[in-house]
């Protein structure tokens, strides 16, 4: 493939020892590439594919948990605590005799589905606010950005901690806290993208044609915003998963006896010396899930715009 | 330069006020009655209506939100953030007494992260696509996915339970610091190493590196003095920004290792509904983060002679013919 | 020293690509004598820069594959161990590049970068190197050299930066200076100054210069001998006046035709060469220029022409019909 001027682009780049996987420049073109080509590229990148596979498998397990789990995750059997893996209990039992495998499955349900739901919620709020601010400009924009700056002065996790601290533990409060704190970075990024896109000539053309602002926003601005936002969504959901687990670990999220990976880690703390595997199972699952999202997000980022790195 | 710093510090004020307001609002959202539980905790019995009323008045809790807020701000400017509901000591003292511990932990973690990230990143860049590089890629993704608290326990299981080499509780000398610092720092080291690698690769493709080689400099000098020196910029500034999130995650690590820092204080305050502490923390920590951001911005200008502040640019209008 | 200073024989540089091996430089042969000023001209992508980098061994050799022979002062450069090549670079052969501001490390003052070059090849104290650097800056026409030596590259204009690069390149008194499009990014007036500076300094020191450019007019001012390149190979070479007056290759003629002339009496439309420069990936069979050549015939499509002298007093030209083509009316260049 040679570019329009017939200059061997690949050779020129190799000359300077340019790095990464030697991708020829689909960079700018990728944002406009039809969906099919994107998917093809995604599949070709093995790590991204791995990420996708992980997310889908875990998602499937989470959804199918009620049908796959051999036992009720909350059913205790004090006589059979810390059992080693067996036919009846594929991964053994925990400190209260509950089936570990079932708990992990149901725990995944809570962790994954909550993260996905929250991730999407944050995305919607942040994108809406960001688009509004970027599009409206002027005082609205200024006000929104002040608020964003204040909230961004704080690392996300601490903000969530503080809100949870005020409201009290429990999943509902946790969710509210994440939503309240998480939309901020989205808003700022989306606003930036909207501002950049707003200056493009085709926006002026659309407005010159008499299209109303809302229509312009939705049909012309949003499609350009989609790509980076999707990447963000994937990565953020991974982060949410970790944060959720962290807070449940601290006892501020899910309340017993509901299983959740972070909470299970917490509960297994006392049995650290006796049965460290009870900490390892949920920990590994959290790691794998987060890894899946990170791989997927990384791969998406490469495909959609290598220069975003 | 001074004007720039001055301006940024001035911006602190609205941010600070915003944070305080946030803290206050958060406090107000608190369901339940903290005064009642405070009384309960300190006197060992529930308060009577009269005692409750008197205590509320004592704490000024019956005034309206604006009044309370102004009182609080007035106090805060003097360093008076109120009194902890759990211990009765001034909030400021509680916070400031624990800051050194947290700083020590975060500082050690940052050191660990950089000490690993920089050499590994350099090697990965120089031996790109070979084994070291592949390992780094995997490692950095793992580092971003492995939760700090899980890593902490893995370390504990390995070094304390199985090997019995390191202590797990409390603050003390170096042995006490190793595991918490590793647990905090390893995750970031992975990300920073990757950044070092990509930054160095980018720099090595620049024209001035080619010139350095064309001059006949030794390869090692080219890589270190022309390559790494220019690539470190990005890594150091990112490290500065990471510091803020380090401080956030340190709270969990502090709880696990019973490290007496402000993060642990916050979490205790949350469980005990000690909201003066929470409020004080919001403002205190918020200010720290804004200052860190400012420091990083200044450091960036200092590190890269090409980057100039807006004010400085005007002075440089008289450039070369 | 007998024989040419630099002798390049069948230099080929190839890069493996998913589409196969592409040749950026295709069996180039040429030479340069001591103190000579040679100009290498061709459109972008003709492989001139790649050839220069290959001579300096600045191409990362995987992925590049370099073959041929490059003899400098009797030594085969391509076969030298890396350590010895390093000692050649900067000290015996120096190179300056396009876009000089980006060619200087942003974190070091320019004086220090010159001093560094000196210390790499000479055993002198830091102080001595610094002083020499300041002196060199003065030699290349930088005003108040002491002050400018302490400045960072981003504060320099293009012309100033290129002077610094020249100072750096000449600091160890090399025998050969390769200048790869040194004035392409500069203003025309600055360009003239830099070229004049190069002429003055190299005459003074007896340094041979290879000036690579796409600007024929520039070479009229500068070069003693010209090599015309196309598609990775040399298509014509000879003394500058001969090339300007009696070009024998259609490509050279095309290049000359496409340049405007201040002193032309007739008004005429500019006549560019038909078509677009060939990509190294898609070199046509036979003569690489044939798709764009107004005189192309069957033989041109089938057989690759080699650089040969066709008539008794002619200069080498890579065209099957060089001797027979209608001679264009002589166009005197601006004259050396």
Structure write-up:
The complex is a heterotrimer of chains A (about 300), B (about 325) and C (about 325). Chain A has one domain (about 45-310): MetI-like (MetI-like fold, Orthogonal Bundle). In chain A, helix 4 crosses helix 5, helix 5 runs parallel beside helix 12 (about 275-305) and helix 7 packs antiparallel against helix 8 (about 170-200). The model of chain A is unreliable at about 1-35 (pLDDT under 50). Chain A has about 300 residues and is mostly helical. Chain A is about 70% helix and about 0% strand. By secondary structure, chain B is mostly helical. Chain B has a single domain (about 90-320), classed as MetI-like (MetI-like fold). Chain B has 13 helices and no strands. The longest helix of chain B has about 40 residues, at about 220-255. Chain B is flat. The two termini of chain B are about 25 Å apart. Chain C has about 325 residues and is an alpha/beta fold. Chain C has a domain at about 230-335. In chain C, about 30% of the residues lie in helices and about 20% in strands. Chain C has helices at about 50-55, 80-90, 110-120, 125-140, 145-150, 160-170, 190-205, 215-220, 240-245, 250-255, 300; strands spanning about 5-15, 20-30, 35-40, 65-70, 75, 95, 175-180, 210-215, 225-230, 235-240. In chain C, the strands form two sheets. In chain C, strands 6-7-8-3-9-10 form a six-stranded mixed beta sheet, sandwiched between helices. In chain C, strands 2-1-4-5 form a four-stranded antiparallel beta sheet. Residues about 330-335 of chain C have low confidence and may be disordered. Chains in contact: A-B, A-C, B-C.
SSE sequence of chain A, one letter per element: HHHHHHHHHHHH
Q: Which residues of chain A sit in consecutive blocks of at least 5 with pLDDT less than 50?
A: 1-33
What structural class should be given to the helix and strand makeup of chain B?
mainly alpha
Helical run tally of chain B: 13
CATH T-level topology of chain B: MetI-like fold
- The beta-strand count of chain B equals 0
* CA distance, first residue to last residue of chain B: 26 Å
**What is the 3D form of chain A?**
elongated
Radius of gyration of chain A: 23 Å
Q: Calculate the mean pLDDT score of chain B and round it.
A: 80
Largest sheet of chain B, in brief, is: none
Gap between N and C termini of chain A: 24 Å
Beta-strand residue percentage of chain B: under 5%
């Amino acid at each position: 493939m040679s570019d329009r001027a017939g200059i061997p682009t690949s050779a020129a780049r190799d000359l300077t020892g340019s790095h990464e996987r030697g991708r020829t420049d689909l960079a700018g073109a990728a944002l406009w590439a039809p969906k099919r080509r994107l998917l093809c590229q995604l599949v070709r990148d093995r790590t991204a594919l791995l990420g996708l596979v992980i997310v889908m498998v875990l998602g499937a397990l989470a959804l199918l948990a009620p049908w796959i789990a051999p036992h009720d995750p909350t059913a205790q059997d004090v006589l059979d605590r810390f059992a080693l893996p067996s036919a009846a209990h594929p991964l053994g039992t925990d400190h209260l005799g509950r089936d570990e495998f079932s708990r992990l499955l149901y725990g995944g349900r809570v962790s994954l589905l909550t993260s996905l739901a929250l991730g999407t919620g944050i995305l919607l709020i942040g994108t809406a606010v960001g688009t509004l601010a970027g599009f409206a400009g002027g005082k609205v924009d200024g006000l929104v950005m002040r608020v964003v700056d204040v909230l961004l002065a704080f690392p996300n996790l601490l903000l969530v901690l503080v809100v949870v601290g005020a409201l009290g533990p429990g999943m509902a409060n946790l969710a509210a806290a994440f939503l309240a704190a998480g939309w901020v970075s989205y808003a700022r990024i989306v606003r930036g993208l909207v501002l950049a896109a707003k200056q493009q000539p085709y926006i002026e053309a659309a407005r010159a044609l008499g299209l109303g602002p809302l229509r312009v926003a939705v049909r012309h601005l949003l499609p350009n915003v989609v790509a980076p936002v999707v990447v963000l969504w994937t990565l953020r959901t991974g982060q949410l998963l970790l944060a959720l687990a962290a807070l449940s670990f601290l006892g501020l999220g899910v309340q017993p006896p509901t299983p959740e990976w972070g909470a299970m880690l917490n509960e297994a703390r006392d049995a650290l010396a006796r049965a460290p595997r009870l900490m390892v199972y949920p920990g590994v699952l959290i790691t794998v899930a987060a890894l899946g999202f990170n791989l997927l997000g990384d791969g998406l980022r490469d495909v959609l715009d290598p220069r975003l790195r | 330069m001074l004007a720039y710093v001055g301006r940024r510090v001035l911006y602190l004020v609205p941010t600070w006020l915003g944070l305080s307001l946030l803290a206050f609002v958060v406090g107000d959202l608190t369901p339940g009655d903290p005064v009642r539980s405070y009384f309960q905790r300190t006197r060992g019995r529930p308060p009577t209506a009269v005692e409750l009323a008197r205590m509320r008045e004592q704490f000024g809790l019956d005034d309206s939100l604006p009044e309370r807020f102004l009182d609080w701000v007035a106090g805060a400017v003097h360093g008076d953030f109120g009194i902890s509901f759990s211990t009765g000591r001034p909030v400021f003292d509680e916070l400031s007494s624990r800051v050194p511990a947290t700083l020590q932990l975060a500082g050690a973690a940052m050191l660990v992260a950089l000490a690993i990230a920089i050499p590994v990143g350099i090697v990965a860049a120089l031996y790109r696509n070979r084994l070291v590089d592949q390992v780094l890629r995997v490692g950095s993704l793992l580092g971003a996915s492995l939760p700090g608290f899980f890593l902490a326990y893995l370390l504990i299981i390995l070094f304390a339970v199985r090997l019995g080499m390191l202590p797990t509780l409390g603050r003390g000398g170096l042995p006490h610091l190793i595991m918490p610092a590793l647990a905090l720092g390893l995750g970031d080291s992975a990300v920073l190493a990757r950044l070092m690698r990509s930054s160095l690769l980018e720099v090595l493709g620049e024209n001035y590196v080619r010139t350095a080689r064309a001059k006949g400099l030794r390869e090692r000098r080219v890589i270190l003095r022309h390559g790494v020196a220019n690539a470190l910029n990005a890594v150091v500034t990112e490290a500065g920004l990471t510091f803020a999130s380090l401080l956030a995650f340190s709270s969990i690590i502090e709880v696990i290792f019973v490290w007496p820092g402000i993060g642990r204080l916050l979490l205790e305050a949350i469980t005990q509904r000690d909201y003066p502490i929470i409020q004080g923390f919001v403002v205190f920590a918020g200010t720290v983060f804004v200052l860190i951001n400012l420091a990083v911005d200044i450091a960036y200008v200092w590190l890269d002679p090409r980057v100039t502040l807006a004010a400085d640019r005007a002075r440089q209008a008289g450039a070369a013919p | 020293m007998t024989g040419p200073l630099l002798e390049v024989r069948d230099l080929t540089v190839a890069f493996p690509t998913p589409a196969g091996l592409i040749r950026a430089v295709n069996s180039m042969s040429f030479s340069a004598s001591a103190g000579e000023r040679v100009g290498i001209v061709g459109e972008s992508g003709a492989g001139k820069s790649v050839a220069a980098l290959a001579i300096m061994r600045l191409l990362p050799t995987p992925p590049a594959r370099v073959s041929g022979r490059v003899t400098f002062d009797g030594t085969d450069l391509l076969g030298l161990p890396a350590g010895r090549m390093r000692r050649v670079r900067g000290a015996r052969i120096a190179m300056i590049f396009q876009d000089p501001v980006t060619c200087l490390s942003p974190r070091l003052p320019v004086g220090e970068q010159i001093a560094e070059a000196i210390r790499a090849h000479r055993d002198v104290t830091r102080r001595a190197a610094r002083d020499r650097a300041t002196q060199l800056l003065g030699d290349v026409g930088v005003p108040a050299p002491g002050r400018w030596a302490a400045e960072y590259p981003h504060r320099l204009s293009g012309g100033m930066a290129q002077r610094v690069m020249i100072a750096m390149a000449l600091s160890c008194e090399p025998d050969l200076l390769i200048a790869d499009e040194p004035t392409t990014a500069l203003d025309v007036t600055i360009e003239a100054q830099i070229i004049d500076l190069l002429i003055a300094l190299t005459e003074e020191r007896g340094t041979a210069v290879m000036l690579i450019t796409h600007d024929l007019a520039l070479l009229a001012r500068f070069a003693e001998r010209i090599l015309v390149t196309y598609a990775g190979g040399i298509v014509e070479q000879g003394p500058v006046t001969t090339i300007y007056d009696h070009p024998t290759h259609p490509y050279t003629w095309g290049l000359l035709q496409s340049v405007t002339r201040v002193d032309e009496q007739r008004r005429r439309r500019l006549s560019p060469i038909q078509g677009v420069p060939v990509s190294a990936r898609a070199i046509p069979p036979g003569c690489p220029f044939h798709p764009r050549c107004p005189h192309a015939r069957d033989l041109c499509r089938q057989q690759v022409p080699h650089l040969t002298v066709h008539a008794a007093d002619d200069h080498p030209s890579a065209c099957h019909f060089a001797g027979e083509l209608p001679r264009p009316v002589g166009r005197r260049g601006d004259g050396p």
